[in-house]
Amino acid sequence: MGGQPMFIMSEDSQRTQGRDAQSSNIMAGKAVAESVRTTLGPRGMDKMLVDSGGDVVITNDGATILNEMDIEHPAAQMIVEVSDSQEEEVGDGTTTAAVLAGNLLGEAEDLIEQDVHATTIVEGYHEAAGIALEAIDEQVNEADVDDEILRQVAESSMTGKGTGGLTAASLAETVVEAIRHVDTDAGVARDNVTVHTQIGASSNATELVPGIVVDEEPAHDGMPSAVEDASIAVLDVELDVRTGDVDAEYAIDSIDQLNAAIDAEEGELEGYAETVAESGADVVFTTEDVADRVANALANEGVLVFEGLGDSDARQVASATGARRVGDLDDLEDSDFGSADRIHTETYGDDDLAFVEGGAAAETVTVFVRGGTEHIVDELERAIGDALDVVATALESGEVVPGAGATEISIADKIREEAAGIEGRKQLAVTAFADAVDIVPRTLAANTGRDPIDVLVDLRAAHDAEGRAGLITTGDEVTIGDPFEHGVVDPADVKREAIESATEAATMIARIDDVIAAE
Known about the structure:
Layout lengths: L13 E4 H20 L9 E4 L5 E4 L2 H7 L5 H17 L3 H20 L4 H22 L7 H12 L9 H14 L1 E2 L2 E2 L4 E7 L7 E3 L1 E4 L11 E10 L19 H25 L3 E4 L5 H9 L3 E3 L4 H11 L16 E11 L2 E7 L7 E7 L2 H24 L2 E3 L3 H14 L6 H12 L1 H9 L4 H15 L3 E5 L2 E5 L7 E3 H19 L3 E4 L2
Parallel strand pairs: 6-14, 9-10, 10-11
Antiparallel strand pairs: 1-19, 2-3, 4-5, 7-14, 8-13, 9-12, 12-13, 15-18, 16-17
């Protein structure tokens, strides 16, 4: 080789190694976690996010905040993925998972500075996570998960979130009713519950619709505004004069030829109207256009038609009503029809909505959310969506644990107890995991204006004495008590997922000691 240097990377590449790489990645992860920490709990603060176009989002939902932020650092992106995973799997606990991951990284950083190898930290964290899952199992409430507990789960999820003029307790009733409606022998059909938002009234007007709501208006003003016991056809058919795919011009040499062309068009349109009317359909939803003459003829027949539906709306209508989408009028048969007890249209300001209720449509329910401003309905939609997810999770698993930081206190206590029997430096990592878990009750305390250290000491003492202790917030009063007695409960799966996803992200980041970036 003659002593000549060998270049295996581009000259534009940047490489960070060893402690510098670990420090950079850990710092990025901690920064992301810190950005959402103050939103945790019933007294959590909101964040205002403004994008480059000037659009504003005001929320304290961890997943929303992290996804709205313009995060480029790859290690920081892993914390966002923790939040996304939590949201996808159980629907709530996103802030807890992100904050826990960030503090696991902070503890790992301290251990690395003490010359504890990253592999030892990873092994210790995984062992501690296993102990944490055992602690969660020990905290599961032995009582059956009934409607009252489900209401507590929903209320706990929404407390502290923007719910407009509604209380979390009143919304919880609606959430539980919605989930109970889609509870089947095969499990909870969570996808059969949708949330539809509409600006223009107080949030107190929020209600549960036994069916679906579609943002559509009738194709003709003369059509009925309501149809009872409706037979529904869902079409992918254009009820207009057919045009060729190729641009063409036709020469007409006489009035007779013009009249013949007009008659042909009229006949084609009349044929569409007659076919639909004679099929027995009371209501038609189509993804294509409907000619004015066809709409007028169907209006005279008392048929309600909605045109230009998006593909997702057409799928939703078909799924909810039991209809089969048809791509050719000649193929329309009785077996293709869906059904609903009632379809009616309502006008809200400049918006027209179609309500498909009862009958086959009642297998799907819609939480119809009202609010005075776009920010209110958006935050209500996020809060209700999370509550629906956690209630579905609790109902399916049948397991709930105390909230208000009580489960985290129990986890940390058990890990420290088990750590005494672990030899070598791995014990330091296991104990560090417990310290990281303490961030949840510490943050809850800080967000209520209490001293985190004093509260943590009191919580540990109460836990040792009673076996269960959380930070209970009731109005302006903050006390330490049994969360189960105060109705502050969370699905056990939310806690499990937070431990597992945070541990996975923290250990992955801690093991990185070489970052190669191409420019």
